[in-house]
Structures are given as structure tokens and as C-alpha cells.
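Sample 3 of the quickstart, ligand dihydroflavine-adenine dinucleotide:
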Amino acid sequence: MRSTDVVIIGAGAAGLMCAMTAAARGRKVLLIDSSNKAGKKILMSGGGRCNFTNMYAEPANFFSQNPHFCKSALARYTPWDFIAMVSEHGVPYHEKKLGQLFCDNKSKDILNMLLEECAQVGVAPHLDTSVHQIEKTEAGYQLDTDLGPVAAESLVIATGGLSIPTLGATGFGYDVARQFGHTVLPTRAGLVPFTMSGMLKELCTELSGTSVACVVSANGQSFRENILFTHRGLSGPAILQISSFWHPGDAVQINLLPDHDALEWLQGQQSARPDSELKTVLGELFTKKMATLITDTWFASKPMKQQTPAQLREIADRLSAWQVVPAGTEGYRTAEVTLGGVDTSDISSKTMESLKSPGLYFIGEVLDVTGHLGGFNFQWAWASGYAAAQYV
Ligand code: FDA
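Result:
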């Protein structure tokens, strides 16, 4: 029987941070992952450049049934702590926008940094290693693994959520939580593109690849960012953000003219360019293709002087408050995160330890804590991994 102080299941963002920090405290750590590579999501993240944190991360950027849960861990390991490590390792980075920090080169700079930190304190992830059974013992936990039986004082579940099964996502963490009496709140895909049907899908397909700055709103939340038309529907940062607040059947409102009072702008155009067609006028703001397509689909394209005040108002309303009812989302296949998960009511916000089973810890995305788009989800993984590492 192999014996160790701490077993961490999941060598992703949270698991690696927890492993290097606990081992640096002198704890003997065994890090296990069923995948053939550690940190696959880190490698895929940020379009290959890993948006590894957000300088302005604060509790308001996270949702959870208990919005207070994330506060303590986020306060004890801030974006600046992670930035300090990134700088120490000489990893070049930049702010893309809105406090979002990305690697200048490749995401693998971040993964290599974490693996190096682990190696320095004697931790190497055991890959392609599954855990078949977990039992509570007097001294801690006993696991039946591909490495044989393992006993540990502390067990950390860092297996993430359900998004992108091809990157190693499994529901393992939720099963362990249930085994030890925890509630798992309903899960759904978050930060995910919308799919459309019928005419809307045709419009999106025609405009596929077009990106427009918008304000997108649903259920009392609004995000100002770009939307992207795709062959299946709508994506882009504004859509990914709002998808986390959307439920099937909800309408999403899109303001395609966020920098203008739509009616005033149209009236101004009518005075300045009475003989220009609507599609030509809209070509000032959108690509020619988009201006033509939305005019032909939604309005009558005629010279501006022929648009009646009522018609101008109708055009303004449509452009500033386009109502869209998505058919659905692309689901876990492409979602960046999983909403819901292990209920935080039975977890200590200070230590991440289970209040139901001493010595059992949950960190990262497996918990019911989800960040907005923009580096917040990694910040949660780092902060929760660091918090648990002080106590395991
Ligand atoms: P994570 O998913 O990273 O790690 C879980 C680990 O557990 C994996 O290595 C997996 O193989 C392993 N595992 C699963 N089941 C197991 C089992 N049964 N046994 C053993 N091991 C098991 N966030 C952000 O802040 N900035 C960004 O730029 C992006 N970009 C991005 C792009 C894409 C395509 C995705 C899918 C996601 C993002 N994210 C992101 C979100 C971010 O990747 C995510 O929130 C964190 O990786 C979560 O970290 P965890 O360590 O909790 O899980």
C-alpha cells in the first residue's frame, strides 16, 4: 500500500496550484490525472494564449448559489500573486482589454511554469491514472487506483466540470461529492455559443464570420462586447457572457447600435442623406453584406426621405433592441465552463474542506462557483487551490 499525506485527483489548473503549494509546505503529495496530459484546458485556453487572470477580479465577477463563498479565497490569493509568479518565471504577457491578461506567446508557458513549480517541490503528475474506488478510513482516505491501493490523510477533488469531454472532463467529482453526502446543484453549460433555428439560423449562417460591437442583455444582465455570427447561431464574447444567465426559452436583446441613440442617428442621416437608401446608410456602421442582409430581411430598402417617422422608429427599435430567442446552446461540447456543481453550503470557504467528511477537499470548477469570461475562472482555480493547500 502506497501511503502519502495528500492525494489530489485532477492535474488541471486548480490541482496543479494546490499540489505545488501543499508540497512547498512540506506535505507529501500524489497528483493523479486520468488524462494523458496535465492541464489540457490551460493549453486550449484564451485561443492558445491563456487568459490566465484578470487584474480586476472581484467576487462580483463570480456566480454561485452562495455569492459570498468565493470571497475569502479570492482575497487570500489575488491576481497579483499569480502575476508575481508569472513575472518571476519571465513569462511575457499583456493586457488585451478590460484587465484580461494573456500570454504574449503560448498557453504552454503557463502550464510549463506550473509543472516547473511542481517539479521543484518533488511533484510529478501521474497521468493516465484512474481512481476506481474511494473509502473513508480512520486515518483519512483509501483509494483503489491504477497505481494500486493508496492511503492519504487528505483527499482533494480537482476534477473540474463537464465542459469539453474530449479534453478529459468527467462527472467524477460530482460522484465523489454525492458519495460523501454532498448536494450537487444542477449543472448546465456556461460561456457557450447559442444555436438558432429557422430564419434566424439562415441569417446567422449568411453572416457567418461577421463580428459587431453590441450590448447584449438577458434576465437583468448586460454585457458590452462583440458578437460573432456563426454557421450555427451566435457566439463572441458578449454572447458567451450572457449565455451563463440564459435559460431555455428566454429572449436575448441585442443593441446593434450601442454608441448611438438609434432614432436620433437615423433622423440625422435622413436629413443629411435624403436620397441614400437605408442599406447604404447602414453600411456606415456595419459591413456592406450585413447592412444589405438586415435591410432586405427586416425593412424596406428605399431612399431615406421616403421612410415615414413611424418606419424610422420601427427601424430604430429593431436595431437597438433586436429580440432573439435562441434554439439552445452548443452544450458541453464547446462550453468554456460548467455552471452549478458541488453545493458550497457544505464546504468551508476558508479551507475548501468538506463539512460532511473531514479531510476531503473540493477546489476549482467542480464547485458551484463560476466566473465571467475574461480570466476569472482561472483566478478561481488558482485561489481555491491555494486556499486548500494551506490546510491539506
Ligand atoms: P480543469 O478542467 O482544468 O482540470 C480538471 C482535471 O481533472 C483535468 O486534467 C482532467 O483530465 C482531470 N480529470 C477529470 N476527471 C478525472 C478523473 N475521473 N480522474 C482523474 N482525473 C480526472 N478560463 C479562464 O480564466 N481564461 C481562459 O482563457 C479560459 N479559456 C478556456 C477555453 C476553453 C476551450 C475552455 C474549455 C475553458 C476555458 N477557461 C478559461 C475555463 C478554465 O479552463 C476552467 O475554468 C479551469 O480549467 C478549471 O480548472 P479546474 O482545475 O477546476 O479543472
